[in-house]
Specification:
Arc Repressor Mutant, subunit A; Rrf2 family transcriptional regulator; Tscrpt_reg_Rrf2; 2 strands; mainly alpha; two-stranded antiparallel ribbon; WH-like_DNA-bd_sf; elongated; WH_DNA-bd_sf
C-alpha cells in the first residue's frame, strides 16, 4: 500500500516518538538499527522528514534527530514521503475520476479510501508508541 520509503518513515517516526520520551536525540546509526533499514536509505528518508518540518536535525557529537512538533499524524508522515495520492487519487490512475465521472472501481474504492483517510488523519504517533515501549509491538523482525 505504501512505498518502502514510507514504511521506513513511519517506523522512524514511531521510534523517535519513543526515544523522545527519554528526551534524547537519536543518531542515524541508532535509528537505522532500530528499524532494520540501511543507513544510506535511512539518511535520505530523514532528510525528507526534516524538509517536511516533521523532524529537527541537530549537528555535532551530541547531535541527532527529534520530532519537531506534537502531535504528528500518520497522514503527515505519509504525505511527506508518498504524497496525498493514496487518499485523493483514482485507484486506476485516471486524471478525472469523481462521483459524476467515475472509473469502474470508484464506488467500491471510495469507502476504503475514505476509511483510510480517517485512520491516517486521526492516528497520532503517540497513539502507536505504547506497544513499542511496553515491548509487545515491534518495528523490525
Amino acid at each position: 500500500m505504501f512505498s518502502k520509503a514510507c514504511e521506513y518513515a513511519i517506523k522512524i517516526m514511531i521510534h523517535l516518538c519513543c526515544v523522545q520520551e527519554e528526551e534524547k536525540l537519536a543518531g542515524l546509526r541508532d535509528i537505522s538499527q532500530a528499524i532494520g533499514s540501511p543507513e544510506a536509505y535511512t539518511a535520505k528518508i530523514l532528510q525528507q522528514l526534516v524538509r517536511a518540518d516533521l523532524l529537527e536535525s541537530h549537528r555535532g557529537p551530541a547531535g541527532g534527530f527529534k520530532l519537531s512538533k506534537k502531535p504528528i499524524t500518520l497522514l503527515e508522515v505519509v504525505s511527506a514521503i508518498d504524497g496525498k495520492g493514496i487518499v485523493t487519487n483514482c485507484v486506476l490512475g485516471l486524471k478525472e475520476c469523481s462521483s459524476s465521472h467515475p472509473c469502474p472501481v470508484h464506488d467500491k474504492y471510495k469507502s476504503v479510501r475514505d476509511q483510510l483517510n480517517q485512520v491516517l488523519t486521526y492516528t497520532q504517533l503517540n497513539d502507536l508508541k505504547g506497544g513499542i515501549i511496553e515491548g509487545n509491538r515491534f518495528l523490525k523482525l
